[in-house]
Amino acid sequence: MTRQIPSPALSQPFDQDFFNDPYPVYARLRAQGPAHRVALPDGSAAWLVTREREVRAALTDLRLSVNKAHSTTGYQGFALPAALDRNLLNIDPDDHLRLRRLVSKGFTPRQVERLRERVAAAAEDLADHLAALGQADLVSEFANPLPLVVIGDLLDVPPADRRPFSEWVSAMFAPQHPGHTAESIDRIHHFLLDLIATRRAHPGDDLLSALIDARDDGDRLSEDELVSLAFLILMAGSENAQHLISSGLLALLRHPEQLALLRSRPDLMPGAVEEILRFAHPNQMAIRRFPTEPIEIGGVPIPCGETVLLCLASANRDPDRYGEPDRFDIRRADVAHLALGHGLHYCLGAALARLEIGTALATLLRRFPNVQLAVPADSLEWRASFRSHALRQLPVRVG
């Protein structure tokens, strides 16, 4: 007879204090153990892995599937139409490796470099807008629109369609009423279908055309794979970059000695970007995983099919891995963080993300030598999300 191991009591760490500052909660959980059974805000249970060693190892453990079909608890998560759900975040090898080989042909250094001048020009235009305002919310007036301009160029969205496209994306991430998310997803889905059909008939020098043309020994992406990957590029390429720009500037403003150093040494920007990724990445968790068999993580038994969340933000502040992990240091030597993932699911758009963040911050610091917060730092509001530690607004004075 198989011995049943009783589930431990549920911890409930996700309260308002957590939303405002999750790092003390992570520190407490790390000190208590490597994995914890927690109650998510919707009431469901999950296992939260908090220590860097265990998180890094789990990211490459093939027994941990990203496919929701392996859930034994009825996990739903962010519900998408079937045609959008077949993307790199939801499939395991060997299908993942097949798609990754094809998609990587659209993320070549040439494709990313092609966007460098456009990213810089868009940042300058938005900086002009900020300068005219004098005081503004950096999130809505600079950080949010910049990545959407880049994604618009990346997918070659016609200029006339960019405003509604941008509005649908914003509504998807910040719905104004129940059902708004599903409505926005439906509109984006049909928009991408039409865009793919247009690009197939009239290919150009853009990522979507490259994905349509990508082949590997005669293999190519199906229609559903194309549209789901375009949707993933849209989601991952807009939201994370938006939050990183505002969180990155806030980190610098809260550490004036580091800000002064970066102003005097612009060549330190690549290191500053890496430290921002480690210290202030908004994405708290890797994509959820489900054990395909009973496993142990750091000696903690986890049953088959239960939801496992690998906490990247906690791992990146683990004192057993990083010296003084709560210190923001743009000259930090150890930059092997997990903010962009590790192993099979390492972010394909990492080079583009680094380009956007570095260009955005360099533009802001060069154009606005006296930029400062327009409100006390402790009055800033954060989104009530356990997945994304992101600012609602960042009021700044640039004059």
Automatic annotation (TrEMBL):
CDD domains: CYP107-like. Transmembrane segments: none annotated. InterPro entries: Cyt_P450, Cyt_P450_B, Cyt_P450_sf. Signal peptide: none annotated. Gene3D superfamilies: Cytochrome P450. It holds the Pfam family p450. Belongs to the cytochrome P450 family. PANTHER family: CYTOCHROME P450 YJIB-RELATED (PTHR46696:SF1), P450, PUTATIVE (EUROFUNG)-RELATED (PTHR46696). This is Cytochrome P450. It comes from Streptomyces siderophoricus.
